[in-house]
Amino acid sequence: xxxxxxxxxxxxxxxVDKALTILECFSDTEPELSLKEISEITGLYKSRILRLCxxxxxxxxIIRLQGSxxxxxxxxMMLGKIYERSNTLISLARPVMRELASLTGESTKLFxxxxxxxxxxxxxxxxxxxxxxxxxxxxxELYAGAGGKVLLAYTSEDLRHExxxxxxxxxxxxxxxxxxxxxxxxxxxxxLGYASSQGEMVPEVAGMSAPVFDHENxxxxxxxxxxxxxxxxxxxxxxxxxxxxxSARKLSQLLGNPK
Length: 259
What we know:
Elements: H1 14-23, E1 32-34, H2 35-42, H3 46-58, E2 62-64, E3 69-72, H4 74-86, H5 88-104, E4 107-114, E5 117-124, E6 139-140, H6 146-154, H7 157-164, H8 179-192, E7 195-198, E8 205-213, E9 219-228, H9 234-254
Antiparallel strand pairs: 1-3, 2-3, 4-5, 4-9, 5-6, 7-8, 8-9
């Protein structure tokens, strides 16, 4: 059987792909990497990494330090700021999330669907010394955790069925993986207008999340607060939920939602 050649838009330039793979090696916990470490992460030969990093450094995407260590360069920050300024959701969400973090003391996150998972688009730290922190851009499952369940509850039936038709991994003893139980939760989330979870993604971490609606009344994000389970007692939970729902409504209104 003769396969059709890929469309131009589907073709990938191998050298560009490898250069981007190098950039993706860096993180908050690993802001500086040696040539050896990059080679171990990517599986690329050191000679090739040197050539690719030389090109990236020439354009400001990477900085070479003394020896053979590298850091991300200022060009990425410039592009990130352009992206943030052009993304209405991010620019509108940050002040709302800072206020929510101040009111509840807990870290706040804004999740959106990316493919078959969710990513943290925005994160704001709370006021407590002990926080549940994840990185902006970090990818998480949709079926576990308050933020994921909100997105999955309001997404299209096709995507929800595609995810639930697969065997789900139990991330912790509290993760719900039974389809019928999840479907009942989604129904309750749509009725109540929020989701809660305890220890589903990480043991001893609880969270609550509410949907964010756009001007066409579509759910485009999930606004979430999360922290240690012991800080989510019934009394404090009710107060935090009130702040969460008010913040989600505020952000929705800023996005043009009339309700």
